[in-house]
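Render this sequence as a predicted structure.
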Amino acid sequence: MLRNIISLSLLVLSCVLPCAGQRQPVLPQIDLPHPYYFREMYLPQLTSGPSSVAWSPDSNEVVYSMAGSLWRQKLNSKEAQQLTDGPGYDYQPDWSPDGKSIIYCSYQKDAIELWMLDVRSGKSQQITSGGAVNVEPRWSPDGKRIVFVSTSYNKRFHIFRADVNGEKLENVARLTGEAKSSLPRYYYSAFDMEISPVWTRDGQEILFVSNRGHIHGTGGFWRMKAEPGAEAREIHYEETNWKARPDFSPDGSRVVYSSYMGRQWHQLWLMPANGGDAFPISYGDWDETNVRWSPDGKRVAFISNRKGNTALSLQEIPGGEQQELHAETRRFLGSLSRLKLRVTDAAGKPTPARISVTDADGRFYAPQEAWIHADDGFDRGERPFEAHYFHIGEKQPVEISVPEGKVTIEVMKGFEYALERRTVEVKKEQTELSIALKKMELGSSGAGQWVSGDLHVHMNYGGAYRNTPSHLAEQADAENLSIVNELVVNKEQRFPDIAFAGKQFDEESKPGAQIVRGQEFHTSYWGHRGLLNMKDSIFLPGYAGYPNTAASSLFPMNADVYDLAHKKGALVGAVHPFDSLPDPFAQPAQTITDELPVDAALGKLDYMEIVGFSNHQATADVWYKLLNLGYRIPAGAGTDAMANFASLRGPVGMNRVYAKVPRGEVSVEVWLESLKAGRTFASNGPLLDFSLGDQGIGGELKFGAPQEAIPFTAKLRSIVPVDHLEIVCNGRVAQSLKLEGARDTADVFGTLPLRESGWCVLRASSDKAEYPVLDNYVYATTSPIYVTIAGKTPQSPEDAKYFVAWITRTIEITSKYPDWNSLQEKELVIKRLEEARTIFEKKF
């Protein structure tokens, strides 16, 4: 997905937000943009099911990673034997040709290092050090060397070779060089990368994946001699998406790999060992990845998410018959106890919720079939690993295998229920625990009820799992999220959820978790936009401004897409707008092309994600400037949740908007009408309500003359402490409201002077992250209550000049853009930009 992000990456974002020094990204030692992509699609992730597999030399059994450990299983057995058990999470095993050793990578102590397991003794030894990320180790055919991928050189993915001497690596050498490309890559570094190495069967060369010479994706397939500085040659190109992971057939004549070519999901493909035309050997609307060819050549093993969660499967070669290799029995290294857990509401009935279970060392445990999700950042002073969690439904109790001793259970259910934390001493016998949730009552000024929704959710987006509407509804139900705006969107060349395009309300919705379909229109040039509740179909192509493609032109603009979307009954809004405040006056000049002020000036915009996958404060600063000029834009919120990821920035509803609707059963249409009317507040934790005079959020006060003391009410209920509770009017703090005690509750009554036309909002924020809010800092804001004095419209010449400079900068850049379909398109775009600039010029 191409995001309109002004700063280079979330790694940069983590350093500029107020939370710097506290919450940091997982594995920040990787210097590549957009870690939420490579972390999920390339780096190993904790899943309750298998995540990678390798064969024994005799082809009679496999070793695979599952639930953070390595497991061994014979093909004719339904029992799996645990080989490793912490203290971290173990992944990506490869069995030595002599059968004596298994090399693997282990995530612990804030790094991923390579380890060696002696198969006979069961003992493991760490064989790399230095705190880098080391992954994808592969034995040479003679068992004397390995290749692997490491970030130890300049924090980028390169391929290394090492000699193996017992349990030591010697003569470690980087095989691939480092080259900086001039290509306009959006979501990949300017520096080329190399991943997924595998030895040719004669041990002389390696095959790997690299984006050398390519703009989009992780690149094509390259071969080179396994010597430092050897020349590499590309043998096959397609736009791979982190998951190709090729493997040679035992006779060395063919390569099997994962590809989505021409489809929406990854399946298994074959091509000649020296390149050529590839063809699929499996078919289906799910992913089949991490494929390995058995040494006897009779079958391949791979990871499939056909059933939703990950599973280990085998396929005969030739023949194509598939079977799942399931471990009905798991034989653990140590003794584990059973924890039976129930979560109830105030009436004692089972209720869906989000659960985290960790032992005294911070290691995570989940039911055997649960989808495990992980946070994308954490405070190293709080915990040794990022937070992990799973969701449960009403079918309870759930059973979890945990070690004896102290175990901590955390239960959360959206923002209306307080976090419940219990630490229990688990005995050898079964332990049962019931946790009752306590609901926080915000109440509401005036008639109606607050109903939550997430404006930006992707059901499937290239992650470890295969999501479905019914499962997405279960995720939302556990998060106490009422409305899910699921946006169909492209991931590279594919649209994983294209089958649901234009279907609006989904029949798999639950009464308290309704799913409505829309689209995210992609262009990193103009900025991404959300199209909510769009009927009939989506727009194809779903993007513009993609270099080196037939969609490289900057036409259509977002304004054109808005017009078409409105005809389809959709609401349209700006999504994840800004990671930093654009400065059109900066020297040297910034590259500013986001179309937001143009959309506002032309009256196209229905909402903005003030709280979303961006810097909430920077986004609010731009929003305030638009409000100061009389543009009435409601506050929205969207997580940009990739709901089939194992490594999430947050679950669905982490950033949500509450809309006030009449009491009773809520329809999607009524909720969206309330959103458009601005009867909303956006939040990643705090609950707010605000009234001014006789008007609530979204209302308007009209006076014939300035007023000195208009009464207000401000309410706060929060699952975490809040540092600041403020009333902001016309972009300035009008009153800072006092917070006492735990700083999570406030009911404030007072008065405000209203001397000029404009607006007021209530906002809550903290200077840092506050667990369990899985965001960089705590933030919430209401939509405005508007104020009109003596019939005058708001005036702010300085803000008008800001947007004139913004659009002027955009015109300068756009005028030089080379890749239009026609001169007429360019002229139309420049004319529309100039029209919007003129509108702002008239506001001086």
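Summary. The longest strand covers residues 707-717. Residues 1-21 have pLDDT under 50 and may be disordered.
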